[in-house]
Design goal:
The structure is a single chain. Helix content is 64%, strand content 6%. The protein is built from 56 helices and 20 strands. Strands 4-5-6-3-7 form a 5-stranded parallel beta sheet, with helices on both faces. It has a 5-stranded parallel beta sheet with strand order 9-10-14-8-15, sandwiched between helices. The relative contact order is 0.04.
């Protein structure tokens, strides 16, 4: 709906308001006024058009008016150039004048942009022609009183940036709200109050800038609508506050002649607000939101001047690219120009491809000017990075090559040096040998002298031993004499001079003293006769001399004669020191001395012979030692000679060793050099080639990086086919055509990643197919935040494993506290994944998504949630949605890199092949997986080894040959690389054998992948039909378990395919509404036919298939057959365009009665056609085309009959679960469920889910209220439900949550809780049952994990009779008599008729009666009671008919 095409008299006012902006004297010519008139009409009228044909219509009307009303015959004179009027570009006076030229306008706005950037946050804009025109338009709008602008364009087209610049030029302050998810209407009104005060009271000119993403609550638009329509918001201010504002304006109002009346003053205030406050709204035209808002709030369109921001034209794209490429070093201006043109081509080609993508696949993708700027920025970044990488690689390889070449040159020099050193070694050897001979002679002489010295030493040793023995004995004896000698000495020492003086002064000695003195005379004086006292006194005359003699007396010198003379004295009883003490202490001490000296002598005399022997022994020992000393002196002289010779020999030996070591080192160096040069000879050649290739690559990088930059920036949201159409078939030929340097046959992946990185990503859990590797490469290279479209959760699983070491956090935007988590991650530089996004992203995330980062001091900051948050460059954000076909706004597409992570059929086929082989041949799959893992590891290792080798060479010392560990390390690295290369070659041979064995199971995997992608498309019919890859794989394994065994492998594979087919169909069909089952079964059949899985005879002709699907009609000849409807005849004409049916319309006319007879049959599809067309029974598909034309009402039945025939065991599919009651179906589903796989009942009228569940709970021993909990969801029941879930999860209970669609917000919490249970591991008996109506609000993550069951009655009378009969208890039925059985069967038939009538809408029943199996069961109970009461008599038909017909039904 073209809702902007709405005009009123207000537009006429706006036109003349613009014309009246002229000043006297500035417009003197008629042509000037005409141009102004044309310009104002264009701004007010034609700016509301947004398609070229309509602008052409406007142009035609304008020309006609110019011709008729203004008399201008040559309109081209006025319309050949764009007309722009502005008040800021022509003169400094602010006059509203035409722009003399576009160059002048661009010059002015460029200067204004520089001026703006000096005082505001930097805006890096390229103001091409259209951008400059938008600035003049915005400036014109806000220059008028009450001028408000509605800028319409996709996000990223520059609306906000140009608004800021235009406001700056016009002298307005720009105000923009910091809107968050918690921003409320009150916050908006508070902001408006502030702006009204500043613009109305203070007169500050303000532009209020608002985008549609900031309208987090549509109630915001109520107040914006009011401002646009009247310039005021009623009730915004309380009365006292308005009075205060009016009071502040009183003086100004008085000067303007405004009467001091409340109404007049208020109008004056409003007029000032309308003059100073202007609203600029930046809205996106994408989707229905803008249209709906415009209808609900008419002032958005009616009270604004509209400016459409159309997609940038080719010239604008080229000029922008050229401006940015000026900063890039390119070989020539021609290449720069061609590259700019190519960038524009890439952008436009993606725009066109996005339209085709929407037409063919119904998927939305947007490219905006912001996307284009991101492409240019990423290209510059990638080119600089790759150039730096190439230079680094060249430098590394060059260092390696230089080292090898230097080493090779050193080899010859080393050989010459080595031969010289070997000659020196020979000379040293001769000199050393001569010294050895001389040393030999001297050594012999020394040996003789040593022998003599040894003999003398033996003699001396014997003498020493003898002397020592005697000495030891003598010392022992003498030791006994020592106490006596000591006592004698002590006695003398005790004698004092006074004592002796006293003694000698005695005139006559006391009794016994004379005996003492007599003994002293014998020993000291040798007086043997005269012992008189006088003689004694004379002896003691000189006291000191006497004491000295006592002290020096030798006891050894006493003679035997003296001993004899002393004996009488000693034997006298008075000769006792003790007795003498009382008479004289001197006498006592002298007595003591005599006794002890005699005692000593007696011992000494006894030892004397021994002492003599000792003396002789000592003399003998001294003689021997003297002889030994002489011998040793001789030996020492000889040894001294030997030492001198030895020193000479050592010196010669050392010299020889040095020379030999030098020779050995030379040999070793030569060996090392030869090892290094020989071992790395292959690298020498390869690195040389590599350097040349890299030098070439440094040129071809220009085109290669362009291709890769476009790949990362644009292709992520496309599928594989469209990706290749873009980069391989569109961009690459264009690069070649424009002669932009490009590697021939380059693959963007070779620029973005390498084998090592790929192997690493695969080892982290990324699927190994091409599209997954592409996605991984885009994610790891893109500069915008990646947003993964990931319904199978393969992408998020890989990211979880990849980022786990980096402290990853995963959460949803509807969880509590998510804003705090984001803020902490931004500040601390963490990695976060926001999962399960919807199509709208909380406005709080806008600054994060757009990377609105600014610098303050040394730190980076970001405004988040209305607060300033410090930004860490390590912060990484990933976004993920499970929606299979989300429709994101262009703003999000511009801010994020959208990546289509939907599994490809080929990729899934490989995954399923691994699973089926793992189940059937585990040892084979284990070997294949191990080999694959080894290959990935080898790739990583080879890259690491190559890097390690070059790193070692780059960091080698100046003399590389001196670093033996380095060379050994290089050899080890080289050897490891060889071993790995050999292992890879060997592994590839093994891989071929393994793959041959695995390929036998390929048909099973291929069909499985086809089935899965068939399931994923069902959600296009009904939101509830969601199936996760995990649940599909679960049933895939069940189908393998249920497949029939077979001896032959080919039969086993056929059984696996059949089992997979029926298992998947059964699982899915149980959760489909009846009206959709045939659609799914038909898709399954036709897909199998397309793939040739149903035999050559059943291959699908695409032309015929399209005819069957579309049922085309052809207007042509009038219908000549009056009984045939015109639509059927038109279809027959269209059918005749098919080669096989050329004659069909003619045959229908010719054999009209026979065709009429067939046409009027009740079941024509089962009858033969007239004439030769009866042969179509052999080709049932072709017959269906005829039925499609003539009896389209029977096509569904014909299609089902066709499937029964064509599909192997087709009846099993057509009548799937037909013989099972709802309880039996539920029981089967229960067997397939697990604690992590709930059962989900999709409710339909009349379904009795709880009755079936109660039966099963009773069967399996679960007690209601104890182990079986039933919760009907509604307000406040979420707490009860969560409590029961927690208990059931731990204790193994059953929980039923009914009508969960009533609490859609809580279901997100339930989904998270089930994820937690899965991680913790629940009790094996725990089961969860959910029920709801079909509703789009049910989270996909909850639906796709569940086994879904619908409880609709089947289609067809026969199927309903079967289902009704199956619902009866078999054992009870068998007990009835034949009458009862017959009536029950009739009751089942009646029930089936009642259900089938519902299919015909008002023709069946005027109301949709909810008949169900419950009605049948109750009727059966009533029947049983009546029959029992009748006692086997007459059947009460009238009663039964009344009860069943009038009461029960």
């Amino acid at each position: 709906v073209k809702f902007t095409y709405n005009w009123s008299l207000r537009e006429l006012t706006n036109i003349f308001q613009g014309i009246c902006m002229i000043r006297q004297g500035e417009y003197n010519l008629f042509a000037d006024i005409v141009k102004l008139w044309i310009h104002e009409f264009a701004r007010v009228i034609s700016d509301r058009f947004f398609t070229t044909p309509e602008l052409d219509v406007y142009d035609g009307i304008l020309r006609e008016v110019m011709k008729k009303q203004l008399g201008i015959s040559n309109q081209d004179e006025y319309l050949k150039e764009a007309i722009n009027f502005t008040s800021f570009a022509s003169s400094g006076s602010g006059s509203y004048l035409p722009v003399s030229s576009m160059e002048q306008l661009k010059k002015v706005v460029d200067a204004k942009l520089v001026e703006y950037n000096e005082s505001n946050a930097m805006m890096d804009l390229v103001l091409f022609e259209q951008a400059a025109e938008h600035i003049t338009r915005i400036s014109r709008i806000i220059s008028n009183p009450s001028g408000n602008a509605m800028l319409i364009g996709v996000g990223g087209s520059g609306k906000q940036s140009l608004s800021r610049l235009a406001s700056f030029i016009s002298g307005y302050e720009v105000r923009q709200l910091q809107v968050t998810g918690s921003f409320k209407v009150d916050d908006l009104l508070e902001a408006f109050r502030e702006m009204f005060k500043q613009s109305g009271v203070k007169g500050i000119p303000i532009v209020f800038l608002m985008t549609d993403t900031q309208v987090v609550d549509d109630r915001f638009l109520i107040y914006i609508n009011s401002i646009l329509a009247s310039g005021w918001i009623s009730g915004l201010f309380p009365k006292d506050e308005i009075d205060g504002m009016l009071g502040a304006l009183r003086n100004e109002a008085k000067s303007c002649g405004i009467p001091d009346m409340p109404e007049a003053m208020l109008q004056f205030l409003i007029s000032r607000v309308r003059t100073n406050l202007h609203v600029i709204l930046c809205f996106s035209p994408v989707g229905d939101v803008f249209r709906v808002r415009a209808r609900r709030f008419p002032a958005l369109i009616m009270s604004t001047a509209i400016d459409f921001f159309h997609p940038w034209p080719r010239e604008a794209l080229i000029s922008v690219a050229f401006k940015f490429l000026e900063e890039v070093e390119l070989p020539s201006p021609e290449i720069m120009s061609n590259l700019a043109v190519h960038m524009a081509e890439e952008h436009l080609s993606v725009t066109e491809r996005s339209k085709k993508y929407l037409e063919t696949q119904g998927r939305f993708n947007y490219v905006t000017p912001k996307s284009y700027l991101e492409l240019i920025g990423f290209y510059k970044y990638l080119l600089n990075m790759k150039r730096a990488d190439v230079m680094r690689l060249i430098d590394r390889l060059d260092v390696g090559l230089s080292t090898l070449r230097k080493t090779a040159a050193d080899v010859a020099e080393l050989q010459i040096d080595l031969s010289h050193r070997l000659e020196v070694v020979a000379e040293k050897q001769i000199a050393t040998n001569a010294l050895i001979e001389e040393i030999g002679v001297q050594r012999a002489d020394a040996d003789v002298q040593n022998e003599l010295a040894n003999a003398e030493a033996e003699k001396a040793a014997i003498a020493s031993a003898a002397a020592a023995k005697i000495e030891l004995q003598a010392e022992g004896e003498l030791a006994m004499a020592k106490p006596a000698m000591e006592a004698a000495k002590d006695a003398v020492d005790c004698l004092s001079k006074n004592m002796l003086t006293e003694l000698k002064s005695l005139s006559s000695p006391p009794t016994g003293v004379d005996l003492i003195t007599s003994a002293c005379l014998i020993l000291i004086e040798r007086e043997y006769k005269n012992f008189k006292w006088d003689r004694a006194k004379k002896m003691m005359a000189n006291v000191d001399q006497f004491k000295g003699k006592l002290q020096t007396y030798r006891g050894e010198d006493m003679t035997e004669d003296e001993i004899k003379k002393l004996e009488p004295f000693l034997q006298n009883e008075l000769f006792d020191p003790k007795l003498m003490e009382s008479k004289s202490m001197a006498a006592a001490n002298l007595c003591n001395w005599v006794v002890n000296i005699v005692k000593f002598n007696r011992i000494y005399v006894k030892v004397k012979p021994l002492m003599d022997q000792l003396e002789a022994a000592r003399a003998s020992k001294a003689a021997a030692e003297a002889s030994l000393a002489a011998a040793q002196a001789t030996v020492a002289a000889v040894d001294a000679k030997l030492r001198i010779l030895g020193d000479k020999f050592q010196e010669a030996t050392d010299e020889k060793a040095i020379v030999e070591a030098q020779a050995a080192a030379g040999k070793a160096r030569l060996g090392l050099a030869e090892r290094l040069v020989g071992g790395l000879s292959s690298e020498n050649e390869r690195w040389g080639r590599e350097i040349e290739n890299l030098k070439d690559a440094s040129t071809t990088l220009i085109g290669d990086c362009m291709l890769a930059a476009g790949f990362v920036s644009y292709v992520g949201s496309f599928d594989q086919q469209n990706r290749e159409l873009l980069w391989k078939l569109t961009w690459m030929p264009d690069l070649e055509e424009k002669k932009i340097p490009l590697t021939k046959g380059v693959d963007p992946l070779s620029i973005l990643t390498n084998d090592g990185n790929n192997a690493k990503m695969i080892s982290e859990g990324l699927p190994a197919d091409r599209i997954s590797i592409e996605n991984g490469s885009i994610i790891t290279n893109c500069k915008r935040w990646p947003l993964l479209i990931d319904p199978q959760t393969q992408g998020i699983k890989w990211l979880r494993q990849k980022e786990e070491p980096n402290g990853l956090q995963v959460f949803q935007l509807n969880q509590k506290g998510w804003q705090r988590k984001v803020e902490q991650a931004i500040t601390n530089g963490r990695v976060i994944i926001i999962e399960n996004l919807g199509e709208d992203i909380d406005a709080t995330m806008d600054p994060v998504l757009s990377r609105a980062i600014y610098k303050k001091g040394r730190n980076l900051y970001l405004r988040f949630g209305g607060e300033e948050v410090e930004y860490d460059n390590k912060f990484q954000l990933y976004l993920q949605t499970k929606l299979s076909n989300p429709h994101y706004k262009p703003e999000i597409a511009a801010q994020c890199t959208l990546i289509n992570f939907i599994a490809t059929e080929k990729g899934l086929e490989d995954q399923l092949l691994a699973k089926v082989v793992g189940a059937e041949r585990p040892e084979l799959e284990e070997k294949a997986q191990a080999l694959q893992a080894a290959f990935q590891q080898y790739k990583i290792q080879l890259v690491q080894l190559e890097d390690d080798l070059l790193e070692r060479l780059a960091n080698a010392p100046e003399d590389i040959l001196s670093d033996i560990p380095l060379i050994e390390g290089l050899e080890a690295t080289k050897q490891a690389a060889k071993e790995i290369a050999a292992a890879v070659a060997e592994g590839k041979k093994t891989e071929i054998d393994i793959n041959l064995a695995r390929e036998i199971y390929r048909p099973v995997a291929s069909e499985g992948a086809m089935l899965y992608f068939l399931l994923t498309k069902l959600c296009g019919i009904e939101h509830m039909y969601q199936y996760s890859l995990d649940s599909f794989v679960n049933y895939f394994f069940k189908s393998i378990e249920r497949a029939t065994a077979a001896e032959k492998l080919i039969d086993r594979v056929a059984n696996l395919r059949a089992s997979l087919r029926i298992t998947m169909y059964t699982m899915v069909s149980r959760g489909l509404f009846v009206r959709h089952k045939l659609i799914f079964l038909s898709q399954l059949t036709f897909n199998l036919m397309k793939r040739g899985n149903l035999g050559e005879e059943n291959l699908l002709n695409e032309v015929h298939f399209q005819f069957l699907l579309r049922g085309p009609r052809k207007e042509g000849e009038e219908n000549p057959v009056n009984w045939l409807p015109k639509s059927a005849w038109d279809s027959c004409l269209a059918l005749a365009d098919l080669e096989e049916f050329n004659k069909f319309p003619a045959d229908v006319v010719e054999a009209s009665p026979r065709f009429r007879e067939w046409f009027n049959l009740i079941t024509p599809e089962s009858e033969k056609l007239p004439l030769d067309w009866a042969g179509l029974d052999r080709t049932p598909f072709m017959k269906m085309l005829v039925i499609r034309c003539l009896r389209p009402d029977r096509i569904a039945t014909a299609l089902l009959d066709f499937i029964r025939v064509v599909l192997p065991d087709g009846n099993a599919y057509a009548d799937c679960d037909g013989a099972l009651s709802s309880v039996a179906i539920l029981d089967n589903c229960l067997a397939d469920s697990t604690p992590t796989v709930p059962i989900y009942f999709i409710l339909s009228p009349g379904a009795n889910v709880m009755g079936d569940l109660d039966n099963l709970a009773s069967k399996y021993g679960f007690v209601a209220g104890e182990t079986y909990h039933n919760v009907s969801m509604g307000q406040g029941q979420d707490v009860v439900a969560m409590r029961n879930l927690e208990m059931a999860h731990r204790q193994g209970h059953w929980v039923v949550l009914n009508n969960v669609h009533l609490m859609p917000r809580w279901l997100i919490e339930l989904e998270k809780k089930l994820d937690e249970f899965a991680l913790e591991g629940s009790n094996k008996k725990f089961r969860l049952f959910l029920s709801s109506d079909a509703a789009n609000s049910i989270p996909i993550g909850l639906l796709n994990r569940c086994i879904k069951i619908t409880n609709e009655p089947p289609a067809g009378l026969k199927a309903n009779i079967k289902r009704a009969f199956a619902s009866l208890n078999k054992e009870t039925f068998e007990e009835f008599d034949s009458k009862m059985k017959s009536i029950l069967f009739g009751l089942c038939h009646f029930h089936a008729v009642m259900l089938e009538r519902k299919q015909y809408g008002p023709m069946g029943f005027n109301m949709m009666y909810p008949f169900s199996i419950g009605d049948l069961r109750d009727s059966a109970v009533v029947l049983s009671n009546y029959m029992e009461n009748s006692g086997g008599g007459k059947i009460p038909w009238a009663d039964l008919r009344y009860i069943f017909g009038e009461i029960m039904y």
